[in-house]
Amino acid sequence: MVESTRQRRASSWVGSVARLGLLPLVLPRWAARRVLDALVPLVVAEVLRRVDMTTLIIRHVDLDRVVAEVDLAGLVEDVLGAVDLPRLVRESTGVLVSGSVRRVRLGGIAADEAVGRVRGRLRHRPTGPS
After folding, report:
1. Cβ atoms within 10 A of the Cβ of 10, count?
2. Which uninterrupted H or E stretch holds 31?
3. What's the rounded Cα separation, in Å, for the pair 27 and 17?
4. Closest CA to 112 of 74, 72, 79
């Protein structure tokens, strides 16, 4: 990761002052805020790099509550919009050949599987063939 010149200067300066034990004596409140503005993003990025986010979420997030608050009707609408089911239905209303019927059925199956995958991800359960 390439550090910016500002970040290098901030960490170098603060490190020097901290080694001397002068940080609280040297910095007025406005300067301490600027130092924190420079350091906090670096520290947070380093902490996030070291933390297993999956384990953290499993331990501390109520996934059932999250799923309960998902707008499933809106989700289904988005999935059906992505599949373009109305177009498939329009194409099949002419001469109903087996290819058109098959595409409509596959579109419905794809939509069902997409909703199942999204729901499974929200519930953090692996999905597989039914």
Report:
1. 19
2. helix 29-50
3. 10
4. 79
| Contact between 88 and 103 (Cβ < 8 Å) | yes
Q: With 70 as the cut, is the pLDDT of residue 18 above it? A: no
> What amino acid is encoded at 30 in this protein?
W
Cβ-contact 83, 111 below 8 angstroms = yes
Residue type, 92: S
Alpha helices in the chain (DSSP H): 5-20, 23-26, 29-50, 53-60, 63-68, 72-83, 85-92, 98-123
Residue 38's contacts (CB-CB under 8 Å, 6 or more residues apart) are 6, 7, 10, 11, 14
pLDDT tens sequence across 109-124: 888 888 888 887 787 7
Q: Assign 68 a pLDDT band (cuts: 50, 70, 90).
A: confident
pTM equals 0.32
pLDDT of the residue at 19: 63
DSSP three-state, residue 103: helix
